[in-house]
Amino acid sequence: MNTTDKISLTEFNQSNEQMASETLLRCCSSQNWVKGMIESRPFSSIAGMCAKSSSIWFSLKEEDYLQAFDAHPKIGDISSLKEKYAKTKAWASGEQSGAAIQDEQILQELKLANDEYFQKHGFIFIIYATGKTAPEMLQILKNRLPNDRTAEIRNAAVEQDKITRLRIEKGIYEHE
Fold first, then answer.
1. Do 95 and 113 fall into the same domain?
2. Do 90 and 145 belong together in one domain?
3. pTM higher than 0.90
4. Active site residue 175
């Protein structure tokens, strides 16, 4: 969401169902989550909206989670990984070629681990990436890879909840 997409909480509460739905779909792509959020209006605060969001989200079924996960871009090539992780410490500090080679290796490992994760679990690896470097995410991915599908649905749902709450906070402001 960019700043032009932001609306006030008052506008959101008073908006028609289509506009509210469009706003919410930018936060989470689960249709049942969107429906629950629309039915829960009006919200008195962003904090209350986020709390209700989590309550609805964790009451949903696996197919609802998968619908939300499917809306995330699949990491499929090195160039998209470079773009996604361009703000890692190594790149931000403009290191020499040795570090660049190491970064390239990390991105290759991320791609392979993401592919393995998708093959094993049937959905992409979901992580709340804010503040995490590519090496940190690779380690988290490797740690989660051995989990069974049930555990990973739950882990991904927890991460999606964090992502959704952040998107609500970025997309809707409390005071006009």
1. yes
2. yes
3. no
4. no
